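Mods, move this if it's the wrong board.
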Amino acid sequence: MDAADRQIERRWDQFHTWGPYGLLVVGTFLALATSDLPSVSAADWSEFGALFIAAVVLQLWHGPRRGRGTPSRRGTVYYALRWAIAFALTWLNPFFAFYAASGYMDADELIPGKWRRLGLFASAIPVAGAQSGGLPPNSGPQWIAFAALLVANSGLQTTVAHLTEQEERRYRERAETISELEHANTALQQALDENAALHAQLLVQAREAGVADERRRLAAEIHDTIAQGLTGIIAQLQVVANAPDLTIARTHLERASALARHSLGEARRSVHNLAPVALADDGLPEALKKTVAEWAERTGIRAEFTVTGTAEQLHEELAATLLRIVQEALSNAARHARATRLGVTLSFLGDEVILDIRDDGRGFDPDALPERTRTGGFGLDGMRARAERIAGTLTIEAEPGHGTAVSARVPLVRDDR
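Not the wrong board. Structure tokens:
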């Protein structure tokens, strides 16, 4: 409630508190001014004095109004006693109808709903009696006038009371609506605050997940490039250590040097998050062909590369992932398979690309693989994770003594450059 509303409420309190006193004084003044005081009997003065004192005491008992009241039994008793005093005073002198009219002011605050109209009708009786010439009516026309005025006064007050009730009902509904809106706004603000906190938490989690994913990617990149290159260099240097003549040693030293330069380029590109060196100038088919040929020359294992379907320029992330899968598969075959032949097939099938790597090595039992250790490679789990990261799948078919087949199936995404 703002200052203006509080000021209005204070004035209403003053009006309801002092209004009955004022109306009683006005009625008393007019009654005394229009009466023939010498002719007033002592009994009338005593009766008037007793009623006047009773009215004042009743108002003091009721006390001042402090805010809008609600109907109660105490309020109903106060209203009934005040009406009885006002009716008696009006019977003595019609001008005390002013005091009787105070019943119109606060019936809605003192009397419960179903009795309120009865209270207004009772207040209209002394008012109509005063308007028709005083109580009791002493002639037929005065009775008719009294009845007409009673109907008019009670009907008017009932209509006003009905409109007041309607307005109060709308006021309460508006107050309830405002209260509900305030609660809704509070709940909405809390939801917005919680949403902002959740959004911030999700950003942190997404950032942490991105960092973790980037770490895994870099670890896989290093494993597939630098680690494999270093493994090849070590293998070439071991051959040099056991070489029977200088020509063979020089050949393997040149291979080790080439592998070192290749690994250095891969390291630089991994740091800058670029495509593999093999894809820098060639498409995926050419890069796979060179990779398989270099691997065959380095390991001495017969290897073939085949392309089926119409080759297309693939998105760089897709091409890099398939190349890394082939590199990991070749590395595994060199270390574990003891194969004599190996084949790599890249198939373009409309909206899919299928990569198959097969060897005739000793194979293995996929269900008996040991868990990856800190010193081990990324292996099959790494290849599968790479395929799944680009919405693909990777299947392994292997059996002890019957070789291994690795198949990666990924959606075809063309290069948008």
